[in-house]
């Protein structure tokens, strides 16, 4: 990553957006959770994302470049399963089974969305639910320790001191999902 690239060092949330938008980036849910990486906008603008901490970028947010210009963040459509059930109790049971597999899920009032997986689709159907493929942006729940949408802000009790610019292979003492 060249140091000559202009840097994006801040995020403005969509509800506080103002300024000159000069390009946009289209990212799937995995690429919307970053701290530092080289990026290229749809219009060709190259820049270095260089945030102080890993941050979840939401659809409609903007990255602030060093010179004050903005790059719009757009959630890319992804291949998902839309899971539904006959009633609330049946849907809650399906959510429990999905959560038991520790996969990202977007929980709505009458449906759950997960990344497309034919094995999980068959499991859901075997439990009496429906699992239909859809293309749409994916906005999964942040998880028990994700804190605010703006990044990794939480106060769980580690017995050791370290930064959080890595995956968490160790236990946090709670069931996730």
Automatic annotation (TrEMBL):
Q: Which gene encodes it?
A: ureE1_2
One GO-annotated biological process of the protein: protein folding
General function of this protein: Involved in urease metallocenter assembly. Binds nickel. Probably functions as a nickel donor during metallocenter assembly.
Positions of the UniProt region annotated as Disordered: 131-177
What residues does the UreE urease accessory N-terminal domain cover? 7-71
Basic and acidic residues composition-biased segments:
158-168
Q: Which organism is it from?
A: Methylobacterium bullatum
Q: Which UniProt keywords apply?
A: Chaperone, Cytoplasm, Nickel
The keyword Cytoplasm is annotated on this UniProt entry: yes
Pfam families attached to this UniProt entry: UreE_C, UreE_N
* CDD domains registered for this protein in UniProt: UreE
Give the matching HAMAP family.
UreE
| Record-given protein name | Urease accessory protein UreE
What's one GO MF term for it?
unfolded protein binding
Where is this chain primarily localised?
cytoplasm
Membrane-crossing segments per the record: none
Q: For this UniProt entry, what's an example GO CC term? A: cytoplasm
Q: Where in the cell is it found?
A: Cytoplasm
Q: Does the keyword Methyltransferase apply?
A: no
**Family statement drawn from the similarity comment of this UniProt entry:** Belongs to the UreE family.
Gene3D superfamilies, A to Z: Urease metallochaperone UreE, N-terminal domain, UreE, C-terminal domain
């Amino acid at each position: 990553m060249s140091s000559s690239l202009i840097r994006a060092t801040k995020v403005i949330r969509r509800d506080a957006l103002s300024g000159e938008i000069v390009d946009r980036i289209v990212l799937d849910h995995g690429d919307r959770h970053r701290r530092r990486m080289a990026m290229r906008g749809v219009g060709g603008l190259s820049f270095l994302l260089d945030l102080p901490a890993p941050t979840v970028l939401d659809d409609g947010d903007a990255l602030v470049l060093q010179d004050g210009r903005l790059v719009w963040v757009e959630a890319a459509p992804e291949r998902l399963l839309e899971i539904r059930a006959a009633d609330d109790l049946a849907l809650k049971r399906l959510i429990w089974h999905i959560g038991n597999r520790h996969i990202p899920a977007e929980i709505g009032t009458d449906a759950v969305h997960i990344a497309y997986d034919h094995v999980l689709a068959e499991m859901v159907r075997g439990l009496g639910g429906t699992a239909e493929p859809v293309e749409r942006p994916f906005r999964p729940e942040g998880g028990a320790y994700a804190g605010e949408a703006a990044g990794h802000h939480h106060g769980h009790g580690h017995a050791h001191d370290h930064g959080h610019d890595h995956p968490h292979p160790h236990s946090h003492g709670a069931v996730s999902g």
